[in-house]
UniProtKB/TrEMBL annotation:
One of its GO terms (molecular function) is triose-phosphate isomerase activity. PANTHER family: TRIOSEPHOSPHATE ISOMERASE. Its EC number is 5.3.1.1. Belongs to the triosephosphate isomerase family. It comes from Cellvibrio fibrivorans. This is Triosephosphate isomerase. The active site is at H94 (electrophile), E165 (proton acceptor). InterPro entries: Aldolase_TIM, TIM_sf, TrioseP_Isoase_bac/euk, Triosephosphate_isomerase, Triosephosphate_isomerase_AS. Pathway: Carbohydrate degradation; glycolysis; D-glyceraldehyde 3-phosphate from glycerone phosphate: step 1/1; Carbohydrate metabolism; erythritol degradation; Carbohydrate biosynthesis; gluconeogenesis. It catalyses: D-glyceraldehyde 3-phosphate = dihydroxyacetone phosphate.
Length: 256
């Protein structure tokens, strides 16, 4: 039986515009979802979405957050600004940010701490690339990302999500099988037990991300340690994304 409330997060990346906002919001208004649902649009569209969403349960997340509070940091957006704007959560250390914007584990740890300080739910993204999987160092990579990103973090009374996103599965159409994803999620939870303690590890939600579609969502979510999904490409089609959210909600209702 699932112990944790399922969560589904859309990562629009550098995509979308006012049309997508309108069609996405329209698909959610008036609907109840037992799962927690959030969309991470580009920064510029957050306020538009938040205005539309005051009558919906949908939450807005950020694709990134500054490690800094304020000051001469051109192009940055702080956790406090996101919180004040109405954001609920933020992605941290997405593999595209690690690969293209030189984000490292130490920077992720500062961002996790900053998000928690401002009551934003941090979603720390981890995952191995194809070469690392082929050379059997997946666990080593994940251990470094988790320890580096979480050491010294105090979670008392606060929530945290981990998104396991194998880089080889992102945007490739080659999702991890439910069995592979479950095996890794179980490893991540064991590692969280070592970093925090068993009770904390059992309440952290671990999302799977990488080529999730409405066709594989249910099988993935049925795994014991898969508590949610991070959805890229498929979230750009509102009908498709709603279908994924409905599946997560059905499982939440069954498990209630
Ligand atoms: C992502 O990049 O977070 C992601 C999950 O992308 P996709 O669903 O397109 O693989």
């Amino acid at each position: 039986m699932k112990q944790r409330k399922p969560i589904v997060i859309a990562n629009w990346k550098l995509n979308g515009g006012l049309d997508l906002i309108c069609t996405s919001v329209a698909s959610f208004i008036g609907k109840h979802f037992a799962a927690q649902i959030a969309i991470c649009p580009p920064y510029l569209y957050m306020r538009d979405m938040l205005t539309f969403l005051q009558y919906s349960e949908l939450q807005i997340g950020s694709q990134n957050v500054s490690r800094y509070e304020s000051g001469a940091y051109t192009g940055e957006t702080s956790a406090q600004m996101l919180k004040q704007a109405g954001c609920s959560l933020c992605l941290i250390g997405h593999s595209e940010r690690r690969a293209m914007f030189a984000e490292n584990n130490e920077g992720c740890q500062i961002k996790v701490r900053t998000a928690l300080n401002h009551e934003l739910l941090p979603v720390l993204c981890v995952g191995e690339n194809q070469q690392q999987r082929e050379t059997n160092i997946t666990e080593q990579v994940l251990r470094e990302q988790l320890r580096g990103g979480l050491t010294g973090i105090d979670l008392h009374g606060k929530d945290l999500c981990i998104a396991y996103e194998p880089v080889w599965a992102i945007g490739t159409g080659l999702a991890a099988t439910p069995a592979i994803a479950q095996e890794v999620h179980q490893f991540i939870r064991a590692e969280l037990t070592r970093i925090f303690d068993e009770a904390t590890a059992n309440r952290v939600r671990i999302l799977y991300g990488g080529s999730v579609t409405k066709s594989n969502a249910r099988d993935l979510l049925q795994q014991a340690d898969i508590d949610g999904l991070l959805v890229g490409g498929a979230s750009l089609d509102p009908g498709h994304f709603v279908a994924i959210c409905e599946q997560a909600s059905e499982l939440a209702e069954i498990d209630d």
